[in-house]
Amino acid sequence: MDTLVLKTQKKSPPALRIVVFAMTMISGVFICSICMKQLGTDSWSRMVKIEVAEQPCNKSLIPLSEVQFVHYPQPQNYSRKECMCTPVRFFAIISSQRSGSGWFETLLNSHINVSSNGEIFSNKERRNNISSIVKTMDKVYNLDWNSSASKNECTAAVGFKWMLNQGLVANHAGVVDYFNQRGVSTVFLMRRNLLRQMVSQLANNHDRYIKQLNGKHKAHVHTRDEANILARYKPRLNTTTLIWSLKQADDYTRDALENLKSVRHMTMYYEDLIQNRTKLVDVLDFLKVPRRKLVSRHVKIHTKPLSDQIENWDEVYNALNGTQFESFLTADYRI
């Protein structure tokens, strides 16, 4: 019986095999058409787009030591199109008030491939806890943050400015973990002369209330006339608490930077940038963006020696002379 069955199968006519094959093809087409109707045209197009978007970019030219710091963001609000495979570096400018960070950021933003989005954590809600901080940073680094710093050209470095007292010190452990995991490069921008920084802070606070420029407060100005008006104010310093205040500011900054030292960083001083603009090349090299001439419309407000900018200069001089802060009295720079 088995022999007869086998022989019968071998003698199946070719026409029968053709019919079975045709029926299989028709069934496959029918099933595929049903799936297409259920997905709809939009869903199908989304599937195709996702497949294209997820095509990997060529990373073979990137050194292994740099892979952690190179990213290919896919914004939710727009398509990077031809910039899709342009690598993007993440950065943060860590500083404190009246340390030249506003001027420094405008210099960076004059670069066609750099976008620095300002003090995003000046808004208290964004720095309530580490979760809100991470959510905000994710939006910036995914190129979904809309600001005047956004570029039409291919962005090669994106970041923001962060003051130490804007939730950074309080959440430093979580921030360090995030920076190291996401490959964020950090520029520590500080000011050596804390006495000059104090004068600038007091003058800025004064204008915040007085509003000397046509009833408007300006922390930064773009004309020499405006700068001269703001520079007229000479603060009177409390010499009784002066040394304590300077020491507190110094310790606060040192402790903060100590807690952040494990991230990839470079340290830059405002005084060095003022006297030697070529220091900006070091910053561009650190961010791995092409070297370009950087410009800013900011005009420096306080350009005179400290003796001409403090109302009770003699008292201040006597209070600091012979102390660890006496170098601040004479460490002026040429503008």
UniProtKB/TrEMBL annotation:
PANTHER family: PROTEIN, PUTATIVE, EXPRESSED-RELATED. The lineage of its organism: Eukaryota, Viridiplantae, Streptophyta, Embryophyta, Tracheophyta. The keyword Transport does not apply. The gene is LOC100845427. InterPro entries: Nod_factor_sulfotransferase, P-loop_NTPase. This is Sulfotransferase. It comes from the Eukaryota. It comes from Brachypodium distachyon. The chain crosses the membrane at residues 15-36. Keywords: Membrane, Transmembrane, Transmembrane helix.
